[in-house]
Structure formats: C-alpha cells, structure tokens
Write a structure and sequence with these properties.
By secondary structure, this protein is mostly beta strands. It has helices at about 230-240, 305; strands spanning about 5, 15, 20-25, 30-35, 50, 55-60, 65-75, 80-90, 95-100, 105-110, 120-125, 135-145, 150-155, 155-160, 165-170, 175-180, 195-205, 210-215, 220, 270-275, 290, 310.
Length: about 325
C-alpha cells in the first residue's frame, strides 16, 4: 500500500515546534507532499533580498533550512531489510536519495543523471556504523540548507562525504566557510534542486517499517525514549552540529538546541526550556523559550502561543513545575 501524506495534517508526538508531526501505522511505502513550495514567502517571512549598489535584486531572498525526520523500527529479522528515502520534484525527477541495505551493512546515495534528469546514478557509498537489529528503532533525517546543499543521516551517521570552502560576503567583507559538498544537479545554482522540491518518498522492505514523520524547523525525537530527558538529549547531541559529540557539518541542528534536563533527576525535563529552535515565524537571530511537560518535554498546554516566547524571554513557567514528580 502506498500512503500519500500532505503537509498540514494534524497529529503529534514528541517534538518542539514542528510544522507537522504525525504517526504512521508501520507502513512501508508513503509519499509526503509539500503543500507550500520551498520558496514560498511562508518559509522566509523575515528574509530580505540582496541588492547591488543600483538597488537591483541580485540574490533570491529565501530561507531553505528545513528538516525531515523519519522514524521507524525493525519488526523481525532485518537481514534483508532496506530503507530508501528520496527528495523529488513535482515531475518525480530525483533531487537526492539514499538507500540503507541492512544485509550488506552498506549505504548508498543517488543523484540525477546530468544528461537525463529522469534517471538516477550512484553518487556516494559507504559502510553502516551500526547493525540493523530486530526490535530496534531507527531514524532517517534529511537536512536541507540551500537549494544544492543538503545531506542525509541514518541513526546519526552522515550518509555523505566530503566538504568544500565557500566564500560569501557579510557587510561587504569576504568570509570563508566550510560547507558540505554541492549535491550534483542538472540545475544551475542557485536555481532548482531542493528549491523545486515537492515530495519526500520513503520505501522499506523486509522487517523495516515506518512509524512517524516530523517536518519543519524543529527538533523531534523518538517517542520510545521521551520519558528519559538525558536519553533524548544524547540522541539530539549525536545528530547535532557539535564538532566533538555530534556530526559537525552534517548535523541537523545546533547543539545549543538540545533539551535541558532537571539536575536532580535527569529523566525529567526542566519546566522552562530556555533555548528552543527557531521556526518559520522567528526573526533572524532569535529563538524561543517554552514551558514544557516535565515528563515528556512536549509543550505544556500544546499551544505555542501560550507556552512560548520569541524575541525576549521573561517567563518562569512555574505553573509547569510539578513537585509531585520529585517525591521518592
């Protein structure tokens, strides 16, 4: 069965400020369709266009940063299980995809054939760092940065190799930054690529099934570990941009957006999370602080307008503190 999921469905699990987050019933095929184009102003409310000295627009003004987090599990012997995930345009031509092969213990990635974009070709490949095990959960993350800068992870392992130095200007001064490699594409930068994305397709075989998907500029974590703040924190940090405990260039979030745990019982969350990842409504350079449930880490009331503050944080969230949880 192929399940087509359109962005905007109401659901929810364990995440902070996702555009969408819903459960799936152990499916092996589904297509996730974006209801807003990546270049829609919805995603770039506060982005200004770059202009030259004549006042002419020179660089498209948009914010491409989005993350897809797919959760799944292995039900039975995973020796013949595979997990394939791909990002596609409206015409079903490939932008970038990966395949995890549990039996072979390998991963491979694919990009469009530059002469015939409707065909794909092998881009990179490597070995898995972890074995697939019956009963284990897994996750696949696609982090999009720009139209041609994006990368996949599987269980916190980057499924991409290589880096490059890119020069850009800040206040007129040249700045060099290390980035992941541009994903090969028949489109000319900065057009096309992820800027033309319409669908995320997932296909699994064997014992691998999909249980949930979260999308947006947000942090999501597995439901199976949500009652243990320190485990959630470890999960996020491993997938973060930390150069020591995370995946550096290939991470999907800054390490500062890991959750804060209660010092006296690290299975519990601090009722005030002081650094929550900005979303599509955030002004540049800002983040949120939010009141959360101490047991699950979810928003305390489930309403962002009630639980979170943006530009400045002067709330204490004492109403979210539950002293009964501290009684031995």
């Amino acid at each position: 069965m192929i399940l087509v999921v359109v962005l905007g469905l109401i659901g929810g699990s364990h995440a902070l400020l996702c555009y969408d987050d819903f459960e799936l019933d152990d499916v092996q095929d589904y297509t996730y369709v974006l209801d807003k184009e990546p270049l829609s102003k919805y995603w770039s409310k506060h982005v200004e266009f770059s202009m030259n000295k004549n006042g002419e627009r020179t660089v498209p003004g948009y914010n491409m940063h989005m993350s897809y987090t797919v959760f799944g599990k292995f039900v039975g012997d995973p020796s013949d299980a595979t997990i394939t995930a791909g990002y596609y345009k409206q015409d079903n031509s490939l932008i970038y995809s990966i395949k995890v092969d549990c039996g072979a213990g390998t991963w491979s990635s694919y990009t469009p054939n530059l002469e015939n974009p409707q065909e794909q070709e092998l881009y990179q490949e490597g070995d898995l760092e972890e074995n697939c095990i019956d009963g284990d959960i897994f996750d696949v993350i696609l982090k999009v940065q720009q139209a041609h800068l994006m990368n996949w992870m599987y269980n916190g392992q980057p499924l991409q190799q290589g880096s490059q130095i890119i020069e850009h200007r800040v206040n007129g001064q040249p700045i060099e930054r290390t980035r992941t490699l541009y994903v090969p594409s028949p489109d000319t930068r900065p057009q096309g690529g992820a800027a033309s994305a319409k669908k995320l397709k997932i296909h699994t075989t064997g014992a691998a099934v999909i249980t949930r998907l979260a999308f947006g500029r947000c942090i999501a974590w597995p439901a199976e570990i949500t009652r243990n703040c320190s485990a959630v924190n470890e999960w996020i940090v491993k997938r973060s941009k930390s150069s020591t405990a995370g995946q550096d260039l290939y991470g999907y979030t800054g390490v500062q957006y890991a959750v804060e745990c209660f010092p006296d019982d690290t299975t519990l969350y601090m009722w005030l999370q002081s650094a929550v990842h900005p979303d599509e409504f955030s002004k540049p350079g800002t983040q949120y602080c939010c009141c959360v449930n101490m047991e699950t880490g979810d928003l305390f009331t489930g309403d962002k307008d009630v639980d979170c503050q943006g530009d400045a944080c002067d709330q204490t969230c004492t109403h979210a503190f539950d002293p009964d949880l501290l009684i031995n």
